């Protein structure tokens, strides 16, 4: 969260940094790209009724299920049609519905159902346009629900969002990070960082840090000591190099 205010402060001050290095676990590779991260919640508000009186109710679970079907149809579209970027382990935009809840009893038409879904998009995908596709589908389903009962409605909420990062291979920050000990690579990562915030502000940005994301966010997460040593050497080289430039 602090990165948002930091980027705003840099921009307002008119400062033009040569580059930015975001310290996230990259095995000390100099990573110049990652996907955006976008998380949503869609709440379907139907009308409860006894299951023997279906015309009196609006089944929120049924409409939530239709939305999930749409989410996975979009996922299949990206998986088969692209666009693709082979520098990623998963070279296309991913879309998944990951939580769903609703209903109170087997003999009651459910009034409430909720779906959480996310997408992680390549830099070549218009993420705002993609969000609007999902909003439009939620609005379409809302119209169908209201045709059954005008009190029914759908709420579409953006729960979290972070832009992706796409830094050119010939950016100075890439070669600088390589000089300081980072391993220059064309690899891009699927996890999100604040790198996109700096990149969107016109600051050339790479991700470089000790450890592997596969070892992070787990009960026994760890970083190899040799990775810590490599990071210390990197920071030492950075300080030495930039201090010499100031002399």
Polypeptide structure, described:
With 247 residues, the chain is α+β, with helices and mostly antiparallel strands. 37% of the residues lie in helices and 22% in strands. It is built from six helices and twelve strands. Strands 6-8-4-9 form a four-stranded antiparallel sheet, covered by helices on one side. The protein has a two-stranded parallel ribbon with strand order 1-12. Strands 2-11 form a two-stranded parallel ribbon. Helix 2 packs antiparallel against helix 3. The longest helix is centred in the N-terminal third of the chain and has 22 residues, at 60-81. It is elongated. The protein starts with a helix and ends with a helix. 34% of the residues are buried.
Strand content: 15-25%
One letter per element, helices H and strands E, the order comes to HEEEEEHEEEHEEHEHEH
**Net shape:** elongated
Largest beta-sheet characterization: 4 strands, antiparallel
Strand order of the largest sheet: 6-8-4-9
Cα-to-Cα separation, first versus last residue:
35 Å
Write down how many β-strands occur, each being a DSSP E stretch of 2 or more residues. 12
The number of distinct helices, counting runs of at least 4 residues, comes to 6
Radius of gyration: 23 Å
């Amino acid at each position: 969260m602090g990165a948002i205010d930091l980027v705003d402060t840099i921009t307002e001050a008119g400062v033009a940094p040569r580059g930015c290095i975001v310290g996230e676990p990259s095995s000390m590779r100099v990573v110049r790209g990652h996907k955006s991260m976008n998380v949503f919640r869609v709440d379907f508000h139907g009308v409860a009724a006894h299951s023997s009186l279906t015309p009196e109710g609006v089944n929120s679970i049924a409409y939530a299920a239709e939305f999930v079907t749409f989410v996975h149809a979009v996922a299949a579209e990206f998986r088969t049609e692209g666009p693709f970027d082979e520098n990623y382990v998963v070279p296309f935009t991913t879309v998944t519905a990951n939580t769903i809840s609703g209903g109170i009893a087997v003999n009651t038409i459910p009034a409430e159902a909720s779906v959480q879904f996310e997408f992680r998009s390549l830099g070549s995908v218009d993420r705002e346009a993609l969000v609007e596709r999902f909003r439009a589908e939620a609005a379409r389903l809302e119209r169908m629900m209201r045709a059954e009962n005008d009190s029914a409605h759908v709420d579409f909420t953006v729960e979290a969002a972070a832009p992706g990062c796409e830094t050119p291979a010939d950016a100075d920050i890439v070669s600088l990070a390589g000089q300081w000990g980072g391993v220059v690579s064309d690899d891009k990562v699927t996890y999100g960082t604040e790198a996109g915030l700096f990149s969107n502000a016109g600051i050339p940005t790479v991700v470089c840090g000790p450890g592997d994301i596969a070892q992070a966010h787990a009960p026994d997460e760890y970083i190899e000591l040799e990775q810590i040593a490599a990071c210390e050497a990197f920071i030492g080289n950075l300080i030495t190099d930039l201090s010499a430039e100031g002399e």
